[in-house]
């Protein structure tokens, strides 16, 4: 078995992809396969990857016959991998040359941890840098990861990690129903009742995404995913850590309502009128009287986006 499989997912980012690939191929630990999973790009991504494949035998390029989106593209890459450890990397990010060696050392030394992550150097849009670092040196407790998410609806673990292949074999792949934040659900699944390995160094530089990237402004779909993940995990984690999570609400409805209202105000402020109309149309089906009233008064069913299903309300916050 090869020691490490690196799964690099990409889609229509040919301009930044070479910088990412170069940073991977310069790793000090070089005994790996690099699986590039192209989700059907319509730029010159394939040409770039084929060129790298012809020059470095570690590179294996695959192009999906149809667009699988995240996490389908990542699942496809994992299923093609053969390594003991599987590193999930993203196009556009830049990886320090000791990333893989540091990750591998952390998992080699900690047999209980199913995966490892690290501190991040985030490059802001204006070119400045921000360090994201957790208050630990080598192990992050599951309680910290979970309580952070239940409190903020944000994960301290980003999408780039290295996991044991056995972790995916035992716990399954990424759940497509959570879209591009399905990794948040995965980390809560793999961390449950244990700790996670950690490298307290900024091994990854995360570059700004394009203005039309889903994270650029509030996405209603994103909010539904966030609360559906909360609802999936809160009961189990409270059973494992009853005292520590005693004050964490079982019912996410009040927080969901507040977040939806805040999102609407933010979208209005930034003049994102298409998403404002989407929100008003979606609110028509809400189980919350205030939201339902506003949606019924100002929204139209014809504005509902293609991804929307009224059952999402029950999945995210309201009981079926």
Structural commentary:
Helices cover 42% and strands 18% of the residues. It is built from twelve helices and ten strands. Helix 10 crosses helix 11. Strands 1, 2, 3, 4, 5, 6, 7, 8, 9 and 10 form a ten-stranded mixed sheet that branches. The longest helix is centred in the C-terminal third of the chain and has 21 residues. It has 320 residues and is α/β, with parallel strands linked by helices. The N and C termini lie far apart (46 Å).
User: What is the N-to-C succession of helices and strands?
Assistant: EHEHEHEEHEEEHEHHEHHHHH
State the total count of DSSP E strands. 10
- Output the structural class: alpha/beta
Please tally the helical runs, counting DSSP H or I stretches of 4 or more residues: 12
End-to-end distance, in Å?
46 Å
| Sheet with the most strands, sense and barrel status | 10 strands, mixed
User: What would you call the shape?
Assistant: globular
What would the average pLDDT be, to the nearest integer? 93
Radius of gyration: 20 Å
Low-confidence stretches: none
**Strand residue percentage:** 15-25%
- In helices, the fraction of residues equals 40-55%
Summarize the structure.
By secondary structure, the protein is of the alpha/beta class.
Task: Please supply descriptive tags for the structure shown above.
globular; alpha/beta; ten-stranded mixed beta sheet; 42% helix; 12 helices; 10 strands; 320 residues
